[in-house]
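Tokens for Efficient mitochondria targeting-associated protein 19. Go.
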Amino acid sequence: MAAAVPLTSRPLDFVYFCFFLSHIPASLLLDFQILYPAQYVPSFLLDLRNWYIQFSADPLISGAARGAGELVWFRCFAWLELLFQFPVFLLGMKGLWNNSRSIYVLLLAYGASTATTTLPCILYILKEKSQVTEAQLLILLSSYIPFFLIPLTMAVDMTFRVHSKMLSSNGKVKAE
């Protein structure tokens, strides 16, 4: 059996691991608030959300918080994050930590799903930019763009890894 390659020696895997790790508190404390029953949201979470909205003027979080009907798509994305993406954070971290190739397909699906759902968020922010200051727009874009680029990179990277794995296990990619 080959010696295990530490996570810190796999730069992209290390970035993905840190990305998942940092995403867990953001999801639990901010993103999922629109899904929690209002009576169960502790005041410190409401304070955090209100501070974030005041600081960034995020039209998605503020719109969803006040129940804006035109943001039903954003609420659907939050459910997708809770039911699919959040479990992948945990499974992905474990698989990356253990250098498990069996996690590649799930990370490919996660990357494609997340990039696909984050792009409309970025475009919505750009559409609503007249509602925010230049500084707030910069904050918003610097908050959302990494959540698009890292999963997109992950999807492309995992596609190549899966393809390579298929080549090495089959000698060639089988045509369907």
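The CA atoms of residues 24 and 53 lie 19 Å apart.
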